[in-house]
Amino acid sequence: MFNKEEMLSVCTRLSQNTLMQTLEIEYIDAGEGFLTAKMPVNPRVHQPMGLLHGGASVALAESVGSAASLMFLDPEKFEVRGIEISANHLKSKREGVVYATAKIIHKGRSIHLWEIRIVDENENLISLCKLTNMVLPRRKM
Q: Which of 62, 76, 115, 123 is catalytic?
């Protein structure tokens, strides 16, 4: 049975001391087949023209899409690797917050395909991304 609070807690724990923490990505909602995170838009994620950097948007999308695959896996037995991501940046953003929601398109045994919509506070579509994850058996360390 899906447990939203547990999923958000796992995502938060796994983000410690990573790029997600550096970009201040916070996981805020989860449900059957989706995960949502938010990221502040400030100079930390700007490109030189003072706009949200496309790479920061892609990092947000890959972070939320990869974490979302964990909903379907036992993290003690499996790992997730992003193997392809594409992004269309449709609108610029200078400040505020963006929200990324990953929704499952295909859930296979070894491949997960996600659509990630990044929107602003007014539901304006900022970027539309597609992420393919590979599911691997966890290696013993």
A: 62
